[in-house]
């Protein structure tokens, strides 16, 4: 019987000390770059060791650093996976224009454009719920403001990514494989662009810059997880709803950017994370997986992580079965089998059932069980760790 490997989608609850330390950091003159100190760096290294050990104890066989190198200064923060990139690139500036405050944008056939976050179709369809502070939909508060691109994008995060790889490597046991997350070009390029002549040029610039971060992770012998919710989530940020054909053409640009950025890197060390956005909204305007799976599978990666546990997308395990002929023979599936969108802790038998669905499609040796999205900043720490324990136990109960 094959042992099912387990992992997470990245973000895990930060300790109170780490949140407080991030909140106490000062900004550079640009107003969004956080300053570090040797004491802070030492705290992150110690916290990383602890979170890896805690994952191991919960039954996670491929641990990550919990994204502890990505700043969260509040217990609830859905954007740390993205805002960290502002700390590691030049060419950005606070202009007062961002995806939350810009004027809404309208698309038309053959000319798909992203609108603002408040103008997302799910957000407008359920405006009362999204605007009600007691509805449970809050996305928290980010550690930094969102800048705009006002100059050439270049990578400046060499010291930061070196610290991330060093901290995780030091926490791993001999023979243990860990992973680090990094934002994909298409998601990174969703900030306001005031410099490049086209969206394509903006995405290409991010791809060229982020490639340095990607290489640093794979060179360290770690798994690189590319976080790209834009592949599915962008559908809801296009107003009015586009045709599927127009959306696929729009998305192909982002797949091409991934392939450009990872060209020459070891495929078996690269995982793509696909999701529909981790906020606790209705998600009635999510695009169905069946429409995008073929396009997404064009990414030249060795693993694909995706939501398969939440109420909006769990049923789509059948899409993988129906379209299994599209799945490359060497692709490892990393389905989410415990969720970030509910406080209910999944029963280990349910976790095992979810895993078995995918094991029957591609074989148990090509399945790594995971969380839907990051748990850190989205559910209470006590609940998050109970979910990871359920994940570990569920994987042990698999019978295939």
From TrEMBL:
This is Methionine synthase. Gene3D superfamilies: 3.20.20.210. It comes from Leucobacter chromiireducens subsp. chromiireducens. Residues 196-381 form the Cobalamin-independent methionine synthase MetE C-terminal/archaeal domain. InterPro entries: Met_Synth_C/arc (IPR002629), UROD/MetE-like_sf (IPR038071).
């Amino acid at each position: 019987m094959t042992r099912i490997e387990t992992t997470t989608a990245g973000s895990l609850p930060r300790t109170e000390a780490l949140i407080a330390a991030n909140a106490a950091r000062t900004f550079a003159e640009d107003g969004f770059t956080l300053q570090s100190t040797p004491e802070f760096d030492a705290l992150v290294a110690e916290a990383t060791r602890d979170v890896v050990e805690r994952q191991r104890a919960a039954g996670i066989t491929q641990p990550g650093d919990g994204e502890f190198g990505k700043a969260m200064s509040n217990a609830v923060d859905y954007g740390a996976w993205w805002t960290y990139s502002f700390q590691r690139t030049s060419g950005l500036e606070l202009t007062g224009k961002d995806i939350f405050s810009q004027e809404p944008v309208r698309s038309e056939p053959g000319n798909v454009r992203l609108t603002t976050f408040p103008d997302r179709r799910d957000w407008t369809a359920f405006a009362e719920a999204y605007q009600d502070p007691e509805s449970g939909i809050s996305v928290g508060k980010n550690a930094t403001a969102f800048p705009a691109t006002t100059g050439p994008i270049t990578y400046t995060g060499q010291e930061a990514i070196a610290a991330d790889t060093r901290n995780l490597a030091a926490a791993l046991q001999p023979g243990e494989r860990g992973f680090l997350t990094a934002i994909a070009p298409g998601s990174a390029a969703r900030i306001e662009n005031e410099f490049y002549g086209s969206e394509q040029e903006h995405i290409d610039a991010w791809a060229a810059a982020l490639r340095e971060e990607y290489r640093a992770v794979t060179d360290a012998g770690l798994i690189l997880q590319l976080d790209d919710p834009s592949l599915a989530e962008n559908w809801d940020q296009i107003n009015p709803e586009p045709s599927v054909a127009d959306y696929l053409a729009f998305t192909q640009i982002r797949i091409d950017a991934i392939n450009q950025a990872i060209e020459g890197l070891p495929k078996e060390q690269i995982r793509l994370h696909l999701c529909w956005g981790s906020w606790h909204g209705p998600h009635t305007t999510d695009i169905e997986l069946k429409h995008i799976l073929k396009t997404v599978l064009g990414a030249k990666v060795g693993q694909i992580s995706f939501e398969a546990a939440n109420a909006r997308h769990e049923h789509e395990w059948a899409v993988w079965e129906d379209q299994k002929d599209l799945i490359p023979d060497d692709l490892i599936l990393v389905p989410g089998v415990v969720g970030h969108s509910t406080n209910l802790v999944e029963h280990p038998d349910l976790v095992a059932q979810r895993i078995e669905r995918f094991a029957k499609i591609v074989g148990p040796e090509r399945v790594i069980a995971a969380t839907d999205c990051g748990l850190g900043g989205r559910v209470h720490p006590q609940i998050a760790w109970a979910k990871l324990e359920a994940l570990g136990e569920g994987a042990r109960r698999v019978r295939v």
